[in-house]
Amino acid sequence: MASQPFFQTLPATIEWRDGDLLLLDQTRLPHEIVVENVADVQAVWRAIRELRVRGAPAIGVAAAYGLCIAMRDATALPVAQFRAELEAHANWLETARPTAVNLSWGVRRMLRHARDTDASDAASLYRALVEEAKRIHAEDQSLCEGIGEHGMPLIREGSGVLTHCNAGALATTGIGTATAPIYAAHRAGIGFKVYADETRPLLQGARLTAFELQQAGVDVTLIMDSAAASIMSQGLVDVVIVGTDRVAANGDFANKIGTLGLAIAAHHYGIPFYVACPSSTLDLHTASGARIEIEERDAHEVTHLAGRSIAPDAMQARNPAFDVTPHMLVSGFVTERGIVRAPFERSLRTLFAAQGNAA
Ligand code: MRU
User: Fold this and answer.
1) Which of 130, 134, 269, 324 falls between 20 and 30 A from 231, CA-CA?
2) Which residues participate directly in catalysis (predicted)?
3) Which long-range contacts (CB under 8 A, 24 or more apart) does 190-193 make?
4) CATH class given for the domain over 148-351
5) Nearest C-alpha to atom 8 of ligand 1 is from which residue?
6) 14-145 and 148-351 share one fold
7) CATH-assigned architecture of domain 14-145
């Protein structure tokens, strides 16, 4: 069984094994290790929608393999019909979640590859799709390493680092995005402390970030989301590093709900605020954060905790899964090609003009 970097005891977030797609069920962590062999494309859609696989880069990789699952029993079809079915599955798979651009990035890249492949039969087109999904998977791992290399200097001996949600190894197929500088600094023997926000309502910080950092031997302390500003006010945080699900052309970005409040608090206390992301999370077609679609999830996730109601019966609740932080609160984007600083409109476009998501 393939395992995730650092976690010899944990299965990989995503594994392609002999034509099967295996997903580590992130809703069961940290106390249960369950791997799902995803039967069909409907199950891939549900796994994304229900957060069994989550985190922007991991969603992109899962979607790429998801299209292989969609087409694996269609290799006897005439090639034109195979292509038409592929396109229909791709359009549908993209609807699983709206905010993480990596989902449509992965799906669109697979479609582009299919279009560019001159195949005379469906079986060879299917093989080409599997190879492309494996490339997306391998690239994701090296993008994380690049982010780690460029972000490591942000973490100095004795620093306090605050992060939100899980932009960790579990959200990718490598060493994570926000956690990449953390793991790189830890590997380099630097001593520092991480504060992990618990991340209401689904507790990705408590269940996933705290878990994976602890497994890796990083000094991590779990805090309530509502404690973050107070921890900052005490001088315990030298840098905030978060992940993102979509970065607009002007540098506004979407991330897990609560990120905006952290950015405002960090600005108030003069704490550098960095956003770690691979180029697959850039959406230079979207001009600003105002145009990013924010996923609104079921109110039940807010009114219930671990299956039990914590609010009056029939309580109304709002559950926006993400918020948008304006670019003026961002010190820099830590990417696989280096740290991108303001003015973001120009710097992002210059560095990533050749990427698939660039306009
Ligand atoms: O709803 P989730 O758990 O998919 O939200 C994930 C996040 O907000 C992460 O910070 C983001 O995807 C960055 S992933 C490296």
Assistant:
1) 324
2) 245
3) 190/152, 190/155, 190/156, 190/157, 191/157, 191/158, 191/219, 192/155, 192/156, 192/157, 192/158, 192/159, 192/160, 192/161, 192/219, 193/159, 193/160, 193/161, 193/219, 193/220, 193/221, 193/236
4) alpha beta
5) 256
6) no
7) Up-down Bundle (1.20)
